[in-house]
Amino acid sequence: MPGHRNGRHPRGHRRRPRSLKIADLDLACKLATHPEVDRVAVVGVPAPVIGEIGVAFVVRSGTESLTEAGLRAWCRDRIADYKIPDTVVFVDDLPVNATFKVDTRRLKEMAASLQNV
């Protein structure tokens, strides 16, 4: 487009990003560094206003003392506010598919059913 060099509008204004992108894998890797988290998977589910919200499925590492509020507070010190998952669900184990990878399709279905309740 003429006049749009280096992402700038002809009048010098920067174009705004359409939305803030959050990589599920990046967020899952950050959450996995928590000492009480054994395994974690993050999926996005549709939200009416902002497009998608993050839902983290967490397997605790032996202890039951980790809570959603505690994990979110831990995240506030290490992750940007918009990346903190909106919902944290504690599960006994993550579902896997035939190739032993985390079944994100089933996790999205579980997250969608939580949002509908």
Task: Report the mean per-residue pLDDT as an integer.
Answer: 80
Ranges where pLDDT stays below 50 over 5 or more residues in a row are 12-17
Q: What percent of the residues sit in helical stretches (DSSP H or I)?
A: 25-40%
Spatial arrangement of strands, main beta sheet: 1-2-3
CATH architecture descriptor text:
2-Layer Sandwich
Class by helix and strand content? Answer: alpha+beta
Q: What is the element string, with H for helices and E for strands?
A: HEEHEH
The first-level CATH class name: Alpha Beta
What is the straight-line distance between the termini?
Answer: 46 Å
The global form is globular
Rounded Rg: 18 Å
Compute the number of strand runs: 3
Largest sheet: 3 strands, mixed
User: By CATH's scheme, which homologous superfamily applies?
Assistant: ANL, C-terminal domain
Number of spatially distinct domains: 1
| Beta-strand percentage range | 15-25%
